[in-house]
Amino acid sequence: MKSAIYALLCFIFIILSRSQELTEVGADKQQCKKNFPGHCETSERCENTYKRLNKKVFDCHCQPFGRRRLCTCKC
C-alpha cells in the first residue's frame, strides 16, 4: 500500500514539473502589437518595420485598423 501511494505521489510530481516547463516555454512566445501609420499592405512590411526597431520578430500579420495598420508579430 505504501509503495502504491509513493508511486502515485511520484507520478503527480513528474506531471506537475512537466506542466511548469511547458508554461515557461509558452511564455517565451509573446506577441508584439503596434500601430503604424499608413495602410496595411503586407505582413512582410510589418516584419520589416519591427526589424528597423531592432526587434526580433517572426510570423507577422497585418490588419487594417482605421487609417492605420496593426502589426501583430511573435517576438
Automatic annotation (TrEMBL):
A Pfam family assignment: SCRL
UniProt subcellular location: Secreted
A GO BP entry: signal transduction
Keyword Transmembrane helix included in the entry's annotation: no
Chief location bin: secreted
InterPro entries recorded: SCRL
Keyword Transport assigned: no
Cleaved signal peptide residues: 1-19
Keywords assigned by UniProt, alphabetized: Disulfide bond, Secreted, Signal
A Gene Ontology cellular-component term: extracellular region
Family label: Belongs to the DEFL family.
Protein's name according to its UniProt entry: S-locus pollen protein
Species of the source: Brassica campestris (Field mustard)
